[in-house]
Amino acid sequence: MELDSTYKHTFIPLTTLSSGEGHEVTVDIFYYCDQIVNLCFVGEILKEVKEWVLVDTGMPGTAERIIRVAEERFGPNSKPQSIILTHGHFDHVGSIEVLLEQWDVPVYAHELEIPYLTGKADYPKGDSTVNGGLVSELSPLFPNHSIDLGDQIKPLPADGKVPGLPEWQWLHTPGHTPGHISLFREKDRALLAGDAFVTVKQESLYKVLIQKQEISGPPKYFTTDWRAAKESVRKLQALRPLIAVTGHGTPMSGEELSLSLSDLAENFEEIAVPEEGRFVH
């Protein structure tokens, strides 16, 4: 796939990160690796007024590091206009309560995800029967309880607009969770996919540790609706993204992304769906 002129201008070569490191993937998208999960700071640092949005909030106990990265990038005492959550699993909302004590900003998620963010519903426990590696086997031990953000959590606008990011749209991409969303910007076809698909075999501790890049479906041990997950991947593939930052693994771009995502969409059952598992059938 040939990159358009806008993308050629803004694209920055990608590198594999270790936990606690960050990297620009475009002039206004900075992804930060927080142990095993990625979060994104979206906003230009060269503008005089630095307005930005945080997408997901990483692992528990890492809020101070996230605040430090934000201030290094956008200046002292900087805070986002809003926080957007792709979904409410513990590794994507782990630091949000501490961050909100510091920032006191609105948080947005899909309306179907809000019960898990207001203490009204818990996710199913991780499914060790999906196989695939040590992470899957350990997943029943991962936190699955809800958090309660009270009136700080708000439903995303029904028209697909993203508060604080006027050029972006949100897309409902369920399957991994009922209210999972992804973010897309048409002008450079940039995609923040959350866990709708990922670029590492998240079930395998070895592949997570070495960050071996390979496109995969959503993490198997937490995915509850495989039919919806397949349709979500097809929806994202139809957008023909030129760069994708996923919740786990390193960003993927250009022809590699195009071919890999097309293969995943066409062969989802073989690549993504486990042979066994509580939610497979």
Walk me through this protein's architecture.
This protein is an alpha/beta fold and 281 residues long. The chain has one domain (5-271): 4-Layer Sandwich (Metallo-beta-lactamase, Chain A), CATH 3.60.15. Helix content is 25%, strand content 20%. The chain has helices spanning 5-10, 63-74, 90-93, 96-103, 134-138, 205-210, 226-238, 254-266, 268-271; strands at 22-26, 29-34, 37-42, 53-55, 82-84, 107-109, 153-155, 161-162, 165-172, 181-185, 190-194, 243-246, 252-253. Strand 10 and strand 11 (190-194) form a beta hairpin. Helix 7 runs antiparallel to helix 8. The protein is globular, with a radius of gyration of 17 Å. The N and C termini lie far apart (36 Å).
Quick synopsis:
The protein has 281 residues and is of the alpha/beta class. The protein has helices spanning 5-10, 63-74, 90-93, 96-103, 134-138, 205-210, 226-238, 254-266, 268-271; strands at 22-26, 29-34, 37-42, 53-55, 82-84, 107-109, 153-155, 161-162, 165-172, 181-185, 190-194, 243-246, 252-253. It has one domain (5-271): Ribonuclease Z/Hydroxyacylglutathione hydrolase-like (Metallo-beta-lactamase, Chain A).
Strand and helix layout:
Elements (H helix, E strand, L loop, with lengths): L4 H6 L11 E5 L2 E6 L2 E6 L10 E3 L7 H12 L7 E3 L5 H4 L2 H8 L3 E3 L24 H5 L14 E3 L5 E2 L2 E8 L8 E5 L4 E5 L10 H6 L15 H13 L4 E4 L5 E2 H13 L1 H4 L10
Parallel strand pairs: 4-5, 5-6, 6-7, 11-12
Antiparallel strand pairs: 1-2, 2-3, 3-4, 8-9, 9-10, 10-11, 12-13
Helix pairs in contact: 7-8
